[in-house]
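My main concern about presentation is that the manuscript never shows what a single data entry looks like. In essence, backbone conformation is discretised, so a fold becomes a row of integers matching the chain in length. An entry of this sort, consisting of the sequence and the corresponding backbone structure tokens, reads as follows:
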Amino acid sequence: MNAPVQVQSSVFRPASRLAPIGVSKILKITGMAEELKRRGGDIIVLGTGEPDFDTPDYVKDAAKRAMDGGATKYTALDGTPELKAAIRAKFERENGLEFAQDEITVSAGAKQVLFNAMMATLDIGDEVIIPTPYWVTYADMVLLMGGKPVFVPCREVNGFRLTAEDLVQAITPRTRWLILNSPSNPSGAAYSDADYRPIFDVLIAHPHVWLMVDDIYEHIVYDDFRFVTPAAIEPSLRNRTLTINGVSKAYAMTGWRIGYAGGPSELIRAMAVVQSQSTSCPSSISQAATIAALSGPAEIVRERCRSFQARRNLVIGALNKVDGISCRMPEGAFYAFAGCAGLIGRITPDGQLITSDADFAEYLLRSVGVAVVPGSAFGLEPYFRISYATSVLELEEACRRIAHATGRLS
């Protein structure tokens, strides 16, 4: 007699690899705030890391010319020769880095560059050192690949920067990568040459550890801070460093989805294999626009940076006047990472106890319609992150509301 056939359930079953991760907390909070706005709420959203400026006209004009000229087909897998040439020129001109054509990759955003690199290199159980506070996607990507994120808290007393002593303690035989993001999301902390040197000494002593550098905020630095990138100032690390960048932040091209990187050719080839089975080439039109961005006038980038600096000064100054809140002055990016330890244990007007930065963020959204992201989402609490990549009027009003809401706590 035949064995009974097992009928499979029609209930959806997600892949087990998704179990430890979820949609970005930043996107969740921003989505909640945007939904409240759609319902008529007076909401100020300070959660998204997106410049409020428009893409420069000369970049949009290049895209139009590309479309009119028929550049609407597939391109080379990981970037057109023309774009790779522009990227190579950018690296040499701005960073003192020389890359061959086969050492450059282009993807649909810097996020895909990171994804490709991790997919191409991580085996089950491999470890990636992530200094905290960190951009939330780093850890989830590691988990998605079956790797293990190793979090190293970077204390405010050290400027939210990784120390050599803490790095040494985190390295094991399974360590594959160290990720460094300067200037940082969410803290705005940036590494000078002197800040990097002790870290380089540790990496030189541990040759199995590769360095993944996220330079996406390179052009948004303040107060005469001089940006440097590791492969340029420590040539001995060049052959195990992936230098990642993109056009989203400096050129206000978030929707164009172009990121790029320079690194060892064998790594770049492996990343191309990953990309060949996922997205294939980036948008042909966006690639043409990126050539214009990287090769065009730099003054508009500097002008916008000056605007961000004025907003930074406004926000940090206002937050530091609020009882219970303190905020370090960041060197770059467009985020304020404010401490709210002085508010933990206080009580809201409706009797709710503030026990965490997440409670405080929820209270701000609920009581005064200001959406911020709690520091716990970035692996370090009690803090909250404000993106000041929005208008001065909105920032002034948001800071006024935060002060009002905080003043009502008892």
